[in-house]
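User: Hi! I have a protein structure encoded as tokens and I'd like to know what sequence might fold into it. I'm fairly new to this, so please keep things simple.
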């Protein structure tokens, strides 16, 4: 989950301070522009799936397996995407990784969105989206305002991710439910991931890795939305 860009982050040292600041500003704008693009693509895919009737088919197929396995798959997909973003050497590879990850997330999200839309009452998806957006904006503002380095969260986030997978595996094997507490803890983990990713984007990502950086942020936002929606659905 931690990109090692310590040496690359110095790539703009031959620029004057004003030029380096301008370059960094352009990089940050590109990151958040691509994040918005990824969210828009995700939304368009979901709209297509629901309007075409494919969402129901996909939901019934995925709901036919143990839903906890889908939760685990969601987390593993996030780890793989982050690894791809960190290793991708070309801009094309970064775009490919981002596109594949957005499509994969749209497919994984479909069953829960379908259940939320048809069985959890109106407005639950919109409410979860608003809460996720508010959380993301607030956490982003903290990093930009304080300029604090949150890279120390990397080890804790890895540990939390491993423990979450262990909890999911135990629930599958022993047949118990992961209740409200698990969703709340995972929302906190997602919040930590947003702090961590945003801090890395400000400090360590090289200026040519804006697509990979946006993938990191999208993965963290998707994680938060997933568990905020899961929490709201459990309360209905």
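Assistant: Happy to help. Inverse folding works backwards from shape to sequence: for each of the 236 positions I chose a residue that suits the local structure. Here it is:
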């Amino acid at each position: 989950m931690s990109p090692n860009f310590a040496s690359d982050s110095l790539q703009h040292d031959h620029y004057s301070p004003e030029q380096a600041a301008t370059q960094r500003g352009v990089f940050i704008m590109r990151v958040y522009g691509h994040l918005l693009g990824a969210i828009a693509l995700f939304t368009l895919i979901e709209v297509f799936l629901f309007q075409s009737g494919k969402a129901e088919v996909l939901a019934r197929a995925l709901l036919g397996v143990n839903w906890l396995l889908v939760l685990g798959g969601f987390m593993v997909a996030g780890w793989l995407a982050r690894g791809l973003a960190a290793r991708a050497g070309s801009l094309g590879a970064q775009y490919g990784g981002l596109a594949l990850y957005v499509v994969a997330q749209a497919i994984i999200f479909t069953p829960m969105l379908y259940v939320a839309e048809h069985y959890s009452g109106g407005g639950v998806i919109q409410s979860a989206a608003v809460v996720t957006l508010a959380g993301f904006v607030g956490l982003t503002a903290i990093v930009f305002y304080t300029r604090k380095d949150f890279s120390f969260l990397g080890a804790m986030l890895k540990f939390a991710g491993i423990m979450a997978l262990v909890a999911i595996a135990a629930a599958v094997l022993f047949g118990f439910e992961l209740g409200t507490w698990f969703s709340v803890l995972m929302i906190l983990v997602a919040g930590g991931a947003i702090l961590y990713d945003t801090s890395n984007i400000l400090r360590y990502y090289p200026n040519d890795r804006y697509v990979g950086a946006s993938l990191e942020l999208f993965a963290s936002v998707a994680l938060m939305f997933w568990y905020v929606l899961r929490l709201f659905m459990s309360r209905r």
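A useful reference point when you look it over: The chain has eight helices and no strands. Feel free to ask if any position seems puzzling.
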